[in-house]
Amino acid sequence: MAMAVLTDARKRDLRRELEALVGRGAVLSDPDELLVYESDGLTLFRALADFVVFPTSAEHVSAIVKLANREDLPFVARGAGTGLSGGCLPAEGGIVISLMRMNRVLEVDYDNQVAVVEPGLVNLHLSWAVGPAGYYYAPDPSSQQACTIGGNIANNSGGPHTLKYGVTVNHVLGLEVVMPDGEIVWLGGKTRESQGYDLPGIFVGSEGTFGIATKIVVRILRKPQAVKTVLAVFDRVEQASAAVSEVIARGLVPAAVEMIDRLTIQAVEDAFGCGYPRDAAAAVLVELDGLAEGMSAQTERIVQACRDSGAREVRAARDEAERQLLWKGRKSAFGAYGRISPAYMVMDGVIPRTKLPYVLARVNEIVASHGLRVGNVFHAGDGNLHPNILYDPRVSGEEERVVQAGAEIMRLCAEVGGSISGEHGIGLEKADFMAFIFSPADLEFMQGLKRAFNPTGRCNPGKVFPTRKSCGEAGPSAYRPHPIEEKGLAQRF
Amino acid sequence: MDLGPYVVEGRSPEAAVFPGSVDEVRAVVALAATEGVPIVPWGGGTAASLGTPAARAGLVLGLARMARLLEHEPGDLTATVEAGMPVAALQTALRARGQWLSLDPPDAERATIGGVIAANASGPRRHLYGTPRDLLIGVTVVTGEGALVRGGGKVVKNVAGYDLPKLFVGSFGTLGIIVEVTVKLRPLPDAERLVAVRFDRLKDAGTAVRTVTGSDLIPSALELLDAEAGRSLGSGPGASLVVGFDGLAEQVAWQCDELRRLTAPLGGHGIAPLPDEAWSRLCTAARAAFATPAAVMKLVVLPVTVADVMEQGANAVRQRGLLSAWSAHAGVGVLTAAVFSPGGQADPAAIAAVLEDWRGMAGAGGGYAVLEWAPLTVKALVPVWDAPGAAGRIMQRIKAQLDPLAILNPGRFVAGI
Ligand SMILES: Cc1cc2nc3c(=O)[nH]c(=O)nc-3n(C[C@H](O)[C@H](O)[C@H](O)COP(=O)(O)OP(=O)(O)OC[C@H]3O[C@@H](n4cnc5c(N)ncnc54)[C@H](O)[C@@H]3O)c2cc1C
Ligand SMILES: Cc1cc2nc3c(=O)[nH]c(=O)nc-3n(C[C@H](O)[C@H](O)[C@H](O)COP(=O)(O)OP(=O)(O)OC[C@H]3O[C@@H](n4cnc5c(N)ncnc54)[C@H](O)[C@@H]3O)c2cc1C
Hints:
The complex is a heterodimer. Helix content of chain A is 34%, strand content 19%. By secondary structure, chain A is an alpha+beta fold. Chains A and B meet through strand 9, helix 7, helix 8 and helix 16 of A and strand 8, helix 6, strand 10, helix 9 and helix 14 of B.
């Protein structure tokens, strides 16, 4: 869509006007300041906004959005920028609305087990706030030390404990939203259900294209009485995959079932020495939580399921320190790749759990066929794969091959009845892959839903839906130097 | 054919059609769209009279012939089902392989999986396991324009595209005809038990609810019944707190003991197990308290206020010389209240006044109330749906975008949709 291009003079005027709305020190428009906001965790895509604005209230957000509408400028909400699909990228130009200064816990109601928070609150900070009273916030993306609840809402984020506790949408009751036309409305509220269409339910996961959340009502849960974590080590990936299904077949719903493969184990051991055997083909981490009563019987069932699937070693953490150590291997995987490869691209696909052995083998073949290496660390319990393709951006052509391999992996996930995103969203990165799993009629229906919220398309344009004519075939275009890089104003590492 | 079973509120449909395939559903919708005839999607018909009375007769589109379990992969904990399959039949098929759909809507023999999703219906176990919203992962619908649209998928975790399954849950057939659904399953627990604790005062039972939700207990159900509703379960006088537990046998036993320990100091006594069939009677306990209810209302409030709302609501009824019975999914704040007329014939104006009282009480605490069942004379005086506020405009825009011909259950839903 064509949107306004601003002259320098117009920019100066608008900057002054924005400052009058939100205060000096809350508006950025110098190119070097804007650079920080030109990408999110996926640096493959970059775009510069005209302004980055830091509102501190819903009224601020509404005023900014109304101004954007008046000027025909696109706008996009931004949390911590940890998204991995380019979701919070501005269109070229327009306004980035950063929610980072709206980061308070507004209310905690323990009796009703809900909290009301601002969107810029860091996910983990909510659990810190309610922890002393024996509560926590269940959705726990691995990025929870940085990502915001607003960003979680937009991407419907999940984490290791999704298997038992669900994703963000299962914990959101209500939202105050600034609609794309600037109106402030409540969707849902503090009660457990709301009347009519499930507006909070469809707003969650809309990737910032339905409006901007300014207050969020979430459920908080009682901390479990007991937690038990088991590590099982396997010589063959198929055994590990079988163990995942076997654990579930034994009638238990673990809080988490995570898996890491050989390359990842080695990287982790090189970097941190967490005590995983370096020669293992795969390790599976199973966590149970709930009542103390019966916990040892359940743990025994898990241990037995892993042994029966061929585990060469199974150990349960005896205390919290040991438990943390077992998790450390899983949690430090991403950092460890950094030690063995100059760069890596995180893929995010989902498959039916029972297809794990086949899909993992195929992923390795696909990546190898492009002359690349892949490390797998993922939420095995819900079939959410994270193949991480390692590469060197300085080697010419390598990035293109990564992108190509990524597209093939996504197609594979679609072919086995899975999906092209389990948690990172579609954003810009996968917009053209939507056709792998959705028909034109499906996409048109979704576009209709989008029009109901965002009829002009100014709110986060270019995301989620395919844009290219040769829909589905081409992957995301590989990195091209941004104009300011060409001018020598910035460099890409 | 005999249209009798499909007469709703005295209005007979023009015809009832029972397609046997997705293509046939599309053909029927296409025809109705050309002719401008409203379509009434029909599952088991157990909630057919819920909603604003229809302004025009239409075509009943029944899903009864589309009732197969299409796929069940125990290792994936998912199942794909045709919308017309009755919930009980689905559960039987799943149970044979050690799993279940963790939903227990009333009248499960008749209620269909499509209808339950369209009505967002649930039962006592929603306390732990949530509602259709938490269990539906994929949906295939035929739109009011005859298009086939799929949302979500067959995997338990999926954020590709907008969450269309959420859109169809609770949409009461106004956005599309659900033809196929994929749901998340759970393994069957080793053991399950339902117990009742009695309290002389409703207030104390309310305190017990708070104590239980703030404790280490993990009940699967937490129901509060006043004396009238409790009677239909065979409880003695006073309020009953009915609690469900599942898991390993030793966990169930430990929790029952812990429940006794926690509630005794609050005045809880006579803790006793209930027979299995009591599970299915919990939902209808309020309606079944006296002869025929004059109206049934669902109130959604903050969980902590449930006992107060029950008490105030019952008082308001007594002052008007009528009777009431109350039950609640106490831990989640969803109440069912039935009003009865002691002399038989109820005066619609008096019933309407009670319902307005109740709606006011729910609204005062930030909640709302829906008239679940009432005769037309009462519906003429009290709106079925509560005022949706600014969100109602968004809902209207969604309906306008997605069912532009407005032929799916028109006029029966929230905000005039
Ligand atoms: C190391 C690492 C690990 C990760 N692990 C996980 C994981 O385990 N699970 C998982 O799900 N994700 C994971 N992610 C992805 C990412 O952290 C999540 O998607 C997160 O929710 C993004 O939050 P954010 O605040 O950084 O949002 P941003 O990246 O700033 O924005 C993401 C999207 O949200 C929109 N948005 C932001 N705020 C609002 C608002 N207030 N209203 C409306 N829209 C808004 C943006 O427009 C954009 O579309 C990981 C990322 C990294 C870098
Ligand atoms: C005595 C009684 C007590 C009840 N108590 C409760 C309760 O406590 N809690 C609760 O949540 N519910 C309650 N209900 C509601 C009821 O359980 C559900 O609404 C019911 O399960 C719906 O299933 P059905 O197949 O009978 O749907 P129907 O009654 O046939 O249809 C219900 C609605 O869904 C639409 N619909 C049906 N099938 C489809 C489809 N395939 N696609 C699109 N739209 C469709 C219909 O048009 C209609 O609007 C109660 C109902 C009764 C009769």
